[in-house]
């Protein structure tokens, strides 16, 4: 929030400085094209920054091309239209209003001397002069006459006079504008207090709600002791461990997708649109724990860990009752994994990528390697990850930090159990279906097997349980549907 307000203050300050400098450096008039482009630039950044405060337009300030688009449109329109508009300097507006008749007389005399036709005209209002169908030399002649009149007759202000003038005309409006913007941002970021009907406590502090493997793939499936829970078409289902007795346990707001399922004791935690919710394992008692966009949400014991978009992609944790929010990192995080009391996370700078580790309370941060990770999974010996740029699957030894390439193929998604890695390849031939085929290999990259090389996986991806692999796929013609296979590739559902 503070960064957003600082950027807006900077934009308004630039506007004030340019306005004041223009009063002293520009003789009498500002061309419309410069005026419009400047205004578009300032307000574009302010409006975009308000949107970005809610995570809707991430990192748009780093993409200068987004500013060039409205500026180019405004500039082209201004050049091509038949009217030419020149604005008076801000400090002259009062003088123009008081001497309106004299300036109109100058314009009338000039029009008579030019003997212009009926289609051409010169119009004056309080802030600008509009020239319609006059050539540039005719325009400059009129501006020179009016400019000379203004320079010869305007009041000569003292330093005190300038200070009072700019306080009234620039300072106060700027303060009002800033206050209004701050109110809008506060309103957009307002979060009602989280209240739950039942305060819960997870007895096992090390109980994990889902595997990092599944979390990386939207967590559409989570396995508990006696049941498997999965999300499909805006609903949450429960099935027996042997895939029998499927039933819908939660179908509120079907139009909002449900994902990142975590099951801890008698509770299910999940994302629904812009919220983190919890329900009991029978589907009752739906309650909101957090409002805001989140990524890679994982429940461990009494804490929910996630990347909070509204907090500039920092690692955040709240307790299982939606209280005690804590920011654990000071960087914009690209990837994270929670494993055995540690949080592994990566972030990028313009020069390099960084992989680090810290305790789950945010203490004892340690550097591990200069790598850019995506979808990392941590086990006892290795960190498995996709290289963010190459899209190649690697693993890094936790013991000596050495890296192994596990495949030469471009892999977009993968899941892992104790013995195998299941993955899908990048489809370079069809942009509509980016994920091609389902494959399996050993965790060291050996023994590659194609379970189905012809299917296309959906963005939702895949999940793995003790005995099964879940994935959403299509043949490229039909609507993507949920499939379940055993780990040898035999279709079960």
TrEMBL record:
Natural source organism: Sedimentibacter saalensis
Record's signal peptide: none
Keywords, alphabetical: Membrane, Transmembrane, Transmembrane helix
Bilayer-spanning residue ranges: 6-26, 33-50, 56-80, 163-185
Lineage: Bacteria, Bacillati, Bacillota, Tissierellia, Sedimentibacter
Domain Prolow-density lipoprotein receptor-related protein 1-like beta-propeller: from-to ranges: 210-478
Protein's UniProt name: Uncharacterized protein DUF5050
PANTHER family the UniProt entry points to: EGF-LIKE DOMAIN-CONTAINING PROTEIN, PTHR32256
């Amino acid at each position: 929030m503070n960064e957003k307000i600082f950027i807006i203050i900077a934009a308004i300050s630039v506007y004030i400085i340019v306005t004041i400098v223009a009063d002293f450096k520009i003789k009498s008039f500002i061309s419309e094209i410069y005026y419009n482009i400047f205004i578009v630039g300032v307000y574009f950044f302010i409006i975009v920054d308000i949107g970005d405060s809610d995570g809707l337009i991430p990192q748009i300030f780093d993409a200068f091309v987004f500013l060039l688009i409205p500026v180019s449109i405004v500039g082209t329109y201004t050049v091509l239209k038949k009217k030419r508009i020149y604005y008076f300097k801000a400090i002259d507006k009062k003088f123009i209003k008081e001497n309106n008749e004299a300036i109109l007389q100058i314009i009338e005399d000039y029009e008579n001397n030019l003997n212009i036709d009926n289609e051409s005209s010169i119009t004056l209002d309080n802030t600008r002069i509009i020239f319609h169908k006059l050539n540039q030399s005719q325009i400059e002649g009129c501006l020179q006459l009016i400019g000379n009149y203004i320079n010869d007759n305007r009041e000569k202000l003292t330093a005190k006079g300038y200070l009072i003038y700019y306080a009234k005309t620039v300072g106060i409006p700027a303060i009002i504008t800033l206050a209004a913007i701050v109110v809008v941002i506060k309103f957009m970021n307002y979060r009602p207090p989280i209240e739950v009907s039942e305060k819960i406590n997870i007895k096992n502090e090390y109980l994990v709600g889902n595997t990092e493997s599944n979390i990386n793939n939207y967590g559409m499936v989570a396995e508990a002791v006696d049941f498997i829970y999965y999300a499909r078409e805006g609903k949450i289902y429960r099935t027996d461990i042997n895939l029998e007795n499927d039933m819908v346990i939660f179908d509120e707001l079907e139009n909002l997708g449900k994902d990142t399922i975590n099951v801890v004791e008698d509770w299910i935690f999940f994302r629904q649109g812009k919220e983190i919710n919890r329900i009991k394992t029978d589907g009752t008692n739906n309650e909101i724990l957090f409002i805001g966009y989140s990524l890679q949400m994982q429940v461990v014991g009494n804490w929910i860990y996630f990347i909070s978009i509204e907090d500039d992609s920092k690692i955040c944790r709240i307790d299982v009752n939606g209280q005690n929010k804590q920011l654990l990192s000071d960087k914009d995080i690209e990837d994270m994994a929670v494993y055995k009391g540690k949080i592994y996370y990566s972030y990028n700078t313009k020069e390099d990528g960084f992989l680090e580790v810290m305790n789950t309370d945010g203490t004892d941060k340690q550097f591990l390697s200069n790598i850019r990770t995506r979808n990392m999974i941590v086990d006892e010996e290795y960190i498995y990850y996709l290289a963010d740029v190459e899209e190649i699957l690697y693993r890094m030894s936790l013991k000596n930090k050495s890296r192994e390439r596990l495949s030469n193929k471009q892999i977009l998604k993968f899941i892992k159990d104790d013995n195998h890695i299941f993955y899908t390849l990048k489809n370079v031939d069809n942009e509509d279906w980016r994920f091609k085929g389902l494959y399996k290999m050993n965790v060291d990259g050996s023994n590659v097997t194609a379970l189905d090389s012809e299917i296309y996986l959906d963005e939702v991806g895949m999940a793995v349980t003790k005995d099964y692999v879940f994935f959403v796929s299509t043949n490229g013609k039909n609507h993507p549907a949920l499939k379940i296979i055993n780990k040898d590739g035999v279709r079960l559902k």
